[in-house]
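Sample entry (115 residues):
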Amino acid sequence: MYKDVKIGDKTVPMLAMASANIYYRHTFGKDAIVVQADATTVGQRLAFYSEMGYIMAMMAEAKGDRGKMMALNEDSYVEWLDQFEAFDYTAALADIASVYEKQKLTTSKEKKAHA
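Predicted structure, serialized as tokens:
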């Protein structure tokens, strides 16, 4: 799935494919499926999607260049994060998660029940 994600004033293309989990493991040394299964707190889930957002952004940028993807590491992740304000990136995590999970965020608001 491809989607442009707005992070602060920047539009970041993101691409989620099955290989994202492999690149995640190579970059961060953790199995994405295990991390998700073990993520029992909101903080753990946010940390996972923060890292996966980087992988998906790099997948969109690399356009299939496996060499670029295999060159990713935690240092390049931190360098990439430095272009965003902390709150802006945190605020975008729901949108980032929707790319990975292939779900669309709802734009409708819950109606109040009438008494």
